[in-house]
């Protein structure tokens, strides 16, 4: 039997090789599992599935989702469910699905008042699920799913796929399906729908990995490959995709079936922030080569050709025929060619004219007002400056705000801002090519940070579009699944649900027996990996301690490596207890990330000691030279293993260069750090024996460190409550005043935290706060927090980071670059003379979007990279 990834497009679309995914669920969406109760509906009972009823007239997206469920049920219990088009031809329990107003059988039940759909009508992508007793002669009971539209019905079916036990990552990460003879569904009526309208991801920076893999597996980035991407998206209850676009790719032009199949499956297509009017940027250059269009990508000088080019994108959208168009979300506006900034000094009136002309094209081609076609204007990088300087677009165009490419949202609507019919959205990054350094190789994203920023965005009204740049999709499985789970219902992703998510994910992916251990591993991994992106790490990233003739003090670098060693040992211990069919998924989702990152740290740690010892001709340098060579070889071996698992299914997916960066962009090839060897006449026992290490002291006189979440007294506000978010940032966690999205407070409001601290060494004191990097989303000069000691006046500290996509020229840009490299912000207040003894340190909530991780009260100078004991 041919593997799934080599089946034909026809076979894929017939449901023969449908993929699956298991979204870790938040409590509001949680499913039961196991044998069920006598009162529950038997989806599978004693290995016998219920009959699936889908009318012949059902929309293709509904039929595809039903075929996925049928395939998943067979995977789960080894028996295919019966399939009927007419419920009256089915006996016993049936699962019946359709769209309100498009299903004669279900509409008849509604007309007979067997089903109340009053709360479903007019909703977006929503569904009602309930059990109806004796709906038709000969049918004992029916699990009825009614969608408000085609995706509403489809998402209800994908929910059932999860309930059966099939993961959205069943194909894309080879997650095995548990065998289940009994699967029951609650009889309680269930109404569900998304809180964010468009939810999806962007395949980007896809060379060499995603592109190379797709070429080997499918012959290119084509519709045979995109079927798997579309299904992954839909199984995670996303609906919106920006396709791969690095030159020379063009989604709609490279394979005309791409847009046809996306629409049939129910996917809304768009284009990235710099590709307006449903045109891939590479199409512009192809058309130039063919003589179809000419001149520069410059509206001031070449408007006629650009309008002709853009018109072609909208004409292609409406080419579906019969008065219908392919479901799309049109990007308007303009950036420079090749995702560059537009010409310096571009005026807002020119951009406003561009948008006006683009909307005229939309209206002319569709024959409808432009306001009836969903559109977005992406406020990415310098385009935000036009918005800040007053550029206006029509109210029905969604304003898509962006982060700084490193996970910090740059701008949001002000609290109390008037609503817009087009609303607001967020373009977020899990992967990036740009300054201060590319990060493309591996997942380095903390879901706690994603939660903090996206919760802020939702509270401030960004609810129309959430889209994440995921690079090659792999290895961003964990944060992407979280992002889309949260996008479905941000209100259900409470701090408690956030904390439970890793375990839910681990249980859904690897089963209950190992869920707790794997959850702790993936949480620790995410925190360790986010400390500093691997492309930013080298032998000088963290300090090592002193070397004596007897032993070496590993310093901060050594402590970090020890933590990675311990994490990898825990990861391998869990691996040894897994079933053989779980090994491929575990390698992709847990083992490779942990081992590869641990190995990278060891490589640079050994490089640091090799160079430090070699400068004094210390023969111990040779031991570390060997360690560097071993780690470099292991890096290659880990990658090669990734490319051979599951019959070579993922060959090429981990080919990203990830070490020895010398500029912000890719090195030309993977190279080992340079090493030095000393003492050619040194005896072997000194040449290769591991040196002895000493453990550095954790506490230092004159320094008192406290985790921000360990406050002694919390003073909440009338609408604010201090809340600890475990694991957020580099320490034990961070503390926030929730709900986010509120306006500023003052010292008179009294929203504050108190910390009792004992100073053992008198002297001139300073208080350093370590906060999670965040930006001033209002554009008012930074985010502020107040600090005071004892009865002294409050001092205001401001984190004023200026995000930039280019060189760091201003002080604010330099602070931003340092913050994103270190993944932490340091704010220091001078407190003057301080006596030994007890003191009360107080933090005052002033601005929103400030997450404090640690406080350090010091009467002696702090080491440059000091973060205090218990650093993650």
Structure report:
This protein has 872 residues and is α/β, with parallel strands linked by helices. Helices cover 33% and strands 18% of the residues. An eight-stranded parallel beta sheet has the order 12-11-10-17-16-15-14-13. Strands 4-3-5-7-6-9 form a six-stranded mixed beta sheet. Strands 21-24-29-26-27 form a five-stranded antiparallel beta sheet, with no helix packed on it. Helix 12 (383-388) links the parallel strand 14 (375-378) and strand 15 (398-402). Helix 6 packs parallel to helix 8 (257-265) and helix 18 packs antiparallel against helix 19. The radius of gyration is 29 Å and the shape is globular. 53% of the residues are buried. Mean pLDDT is 92; it is low at 1-36.
Biggest β-sheet: count, sense, barrel?
8 strands, parallel
Task: Output the number of helix runs.
Answer: 21
Taking all Cα atoms into account, the compactness measure Rg is 29 Å
Strand content: 15-25%
Number of strands: 30
Instruction: Indicate the overall shape.
Output: globular
How many angstroms does the end-to-end distance come to?
47 Å
The computed structural class is alpha/beta
Strand order of the largest sheet: 12-11-10-17-16-15-14-13
Low-confidence stretches: 1-36
**Percent of residues in helices:** 25-40%
**Mean pLDDT, nearest integer?**
92
């Amino acid at each position: 039997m041919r593997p799934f990834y080599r089946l034909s497009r026809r076979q894929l679309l017939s449901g023969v090789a449908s993929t699956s995914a298991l979204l870790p669920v938040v409590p509001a969406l949680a499913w039961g599992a196991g044998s069920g109760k006598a009162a529950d509906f038997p989806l599978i009972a004693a290995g016998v599935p219920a009959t699936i009823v889908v009318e012949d007239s059902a929309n293709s997206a509904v039929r595809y989702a039903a075929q996925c469920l049928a395939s998943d049920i067979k995977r789960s219990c080894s028996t295919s469910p019966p399939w009927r088009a007419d419920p009256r031809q089915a006996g016993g329990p049936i699962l019946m699905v359709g769209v309100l107003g498009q299903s004669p059988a279900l509409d008849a039940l509604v007309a007979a008042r067997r089903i109340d759909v009053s709360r479903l009508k007019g909703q977006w992508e929503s569904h009602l699920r309930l059990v109806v007793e004796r709906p038709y002669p000969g049918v004992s009971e029916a699990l009825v799913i009614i969608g408000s539209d085609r995706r509403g019905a489809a998402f209800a079916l994908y929910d059932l796929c999860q309930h059966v036990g099939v993961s959205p990552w069943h194909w894309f990460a080879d997650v095995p399906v548990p065998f289940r003879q009994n699967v029951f569904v609650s009889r309680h009526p269930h109404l569900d729908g998304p809180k964010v309208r468009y939810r999806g991801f962007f395949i980007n920076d896809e060379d060499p990995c995603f592109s190379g893999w797709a070429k080997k597996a499918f012959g290119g980035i084509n519709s045979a490959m995109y079927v798997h991407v579309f299904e992954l998206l839909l199984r995670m209850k996303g609906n919106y995709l920006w396709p791969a676009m690095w030159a020379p790719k063009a989604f709609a032009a490279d394979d005309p079936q791409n847009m046809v199949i996306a629409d049939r499956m129910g996917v809304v297509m768009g284009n990235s922030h710099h590709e307006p009017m449903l045109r891939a940027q590479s199409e512009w250059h192809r058309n130039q080569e063919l003589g179809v269009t000419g001149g520069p990508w410059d509206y001031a000088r070449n408007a006629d050709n650009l309008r002709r080019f853009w018109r072609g994108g909208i004409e292609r959208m409406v080419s579906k025929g019969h008065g219908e168009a392919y479901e799309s979300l049109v990007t308007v506006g303009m950036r420079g060619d090749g995702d560059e900034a537009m010409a310096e000094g571009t005026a807002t009136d020119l951009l406003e004219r561009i948008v006006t002309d683009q909307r005229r094209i939309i209206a002319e081609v569709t024959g409808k007002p432009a306001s009836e076609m969903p559109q977005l204007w992406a406020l990415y990088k310098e385009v935000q400056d036009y918005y800040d300087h007053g550029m206006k677009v029509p109210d029905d165009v969604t304003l898509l705000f962006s982060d700084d490419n490193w996970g910090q949202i740059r701008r949001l609507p002000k609290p109390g801002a008037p609503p817009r019919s087009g609303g607001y959205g967020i373009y977020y990054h899990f992967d990036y090519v740009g300054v201060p350094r590319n990060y493309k190789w591996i997942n380095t994203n903390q879901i706690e940070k994603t939660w903090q920023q996206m919760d802020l965005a939702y509270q401030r009204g960004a609810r129309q579009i959430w889209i994440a740049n995921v690079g090659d999709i792999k290895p961003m499985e964990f944060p992407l699944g979280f992002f889309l789970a949260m996008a479905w219902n941000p209100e259900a992703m409470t701090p408690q649900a956030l904390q439970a998510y890793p375990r839910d994910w681990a249980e859904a992916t690897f089963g209950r027996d190992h869920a707790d251990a794997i959850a702790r591993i993936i949480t620790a991994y995410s925190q360790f990996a986010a400390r500093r992106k691997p492309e930013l790490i080298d032998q000088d990233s963290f300090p090592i301690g002193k070397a004596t003739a007897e032993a070496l003090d590993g310093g901060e670098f050594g402590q970090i490596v020890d933590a990675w060693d311990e994490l990898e040992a825990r990861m391998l211990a869990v691996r040894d207890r897994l079933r053989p069919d779980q090994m491929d998924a575990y390698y992709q989702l847990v083992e490779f990330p942990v081992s590869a990152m641990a190995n990278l740290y060891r490589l640079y740690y050994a490089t640091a000691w090799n160079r430090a010892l070699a400068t004094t001709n210390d023969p111990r340098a040779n031991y570390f030279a060997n360690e560097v060579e071993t780690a470099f070889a292991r890096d290659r071996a880990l990658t090669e293993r990734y490319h051979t698992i599951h019959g070579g299914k993922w060959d090429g997916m981990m080919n990203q260069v990830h070490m020895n960066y010398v500029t912000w962009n890719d090195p030309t090839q993977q190279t080992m750090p340079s090493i030095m060897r000393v003492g050619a006449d040194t005896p072997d026992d000194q040449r290769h024996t591991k040196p002895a290490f000493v453990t550095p002291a954790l506490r230092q006189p004159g320094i008192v460190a406290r985790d921000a979440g360990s406050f002694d007294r919390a003073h909440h506000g009338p609408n604010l409550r201090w809340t600890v978010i475990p694991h957020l940032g580099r320490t034990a966690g961070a503390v926030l005043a929730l709900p986010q999205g509120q306006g500023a407070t003052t010292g008179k409001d009294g929203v504050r935290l108190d910390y009792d601290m004992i100073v053992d060494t008198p002297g001139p004191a300073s208080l350093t706060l370590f906060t999670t990097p965040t930006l001033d989303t209002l554009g008012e000069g930074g985010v502020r927090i107040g600090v005071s000691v004892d009865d002294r006046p409050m001092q205001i500290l401001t984190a004023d980071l200026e995000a930039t996509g280019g060189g760091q020229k201003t002080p604010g840009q330099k602070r931003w670059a340092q913050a994103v490299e270190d993944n932490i912000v340091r704010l220091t207040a001078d407190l003057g003379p301080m006596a030994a003894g007890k003191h009360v340190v107080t933090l005052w909530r002033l601005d929103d979007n400030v997450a404090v991780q640690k406080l350090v009260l010091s009467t002696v100078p702090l080491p440059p990279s000091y973060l205090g004991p218990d650093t993650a």
